[in-house]
């Protein structure tokens, strides 16, 4: 999704959000990511304003006042944390681990195929449903290398073992990773 993201071309505009809208976004984030509850005030402090950055293709970003992008919201998807935020708070998302052979493909923006999640070096968090946002981990690596949306439940991935298992949304060194701040 962010393979060729360029802030100079893809950002349409930014706007400061009213405090009531900010409160609503904080509440929605706490609902989507219950493990974030104790840390939401560290990430988006109540005393500081944050802004909404509108991009092409109906993508919104939530950024702090200093311009650091924290969450992304594609058209009909939930808010998705950026990898930089996920590296600070790795417990936000459930982890799906791919084997070593899938690493180069994930870092190239490819979707995660079911065999990459069911092979000997891979591990899946049981009980995850379709459309769940997950961290894409790699065998032998400490930090997430991508964030994706499940296209099948973990049970379906194990049983079918064919096709796309996770839609790769954001990964290391994509266009969004290279954006450190937005103005």
TrEMBL record:
Keywords: Cytoplasm. GO terms for molecular function: RNA binding. It holds the Pfam family PUA. CDD domains: MCT1_N, PUA_MCTS-1-like. It comes from the Eukaryota. GO terms for cellular component: cytoplasm. GO terms for biological process: formation of translation preinitiation complex; translation reinitiation. InterPro entries: MCT-1/Tma20, Pre-PUA, PUA, PUA-like_sf, Uncharacterised_CHP00451. It is found in: Cytoplasm. Residues 94-173 form the PUA domain. SMART domains: PUA. Belongs to the MCTS1 family. This is PUA domain-containing protein.
